[in-house]
Specification:
single chain, 133 residues, four-stranded antiparallel β-sheet, 4 helices, globular
């Protein structure tokens, strides 16, 4: 597969992977959609066990009812470029219908348990929250 064809395929596959999230959100609430993207760096980046525990912990958050869609991922083996930061270990991407849904998630017992059970695994966490423009 040529690089151009591969890039087109990967771009299309990325868009298709977001389809469930976009379909889960009613169009009339489009202006209120909140996206919560979190990046985790492990204290022990070479520990497969810590990575597996963190991934399992993040996946447990999917039980929180206000999360419309969740994607849990690790850095992809994409082309190395100056603008790409793949230094993190795990990311979570969540979609909420509105700010209230995200607030419910923040205070939810499952989220608080995740923090209590997994905070010792990470060295750094960066959060990006966006709302529809």
């Amino acid at each position: 597969m040529t690089k151009s064809t591969r890039r087109k395929f990967l771009a299309s596959a990325s868009l298709v992977s977001l389809a469930p999230a976009l379909n889960a959100l009613p169009m009339e609430q489009e202006n209120n959609v909140l996206v919560h993207h979190v990046f985790f760096w492990l204290k022990n980046p070479n520990s497969k066990e810590d990575l597996a525990r963190l991934i399992a912990g993040v996946k447990s958050l999917s039980k929180i009812e206000t999360i419309q869609y969740i994607h849990v991922g690790v850095p992809a083996s994409t082309e190395k470029r100056d603008v790409v930061d793949n230094s993190y270990a795990v990311s979570e991407l969540m979609f909420f219908k509105d700010l209230a849904g995200q607030k419910t998630y923040q205070d939810h017992p499952i989220h608080l348990k995740f923090i209590a059970d997994c905070a010792h695994l990470w060295e750094k966490v960066v959060v990006y929250d966006t709302i529809s423009a």
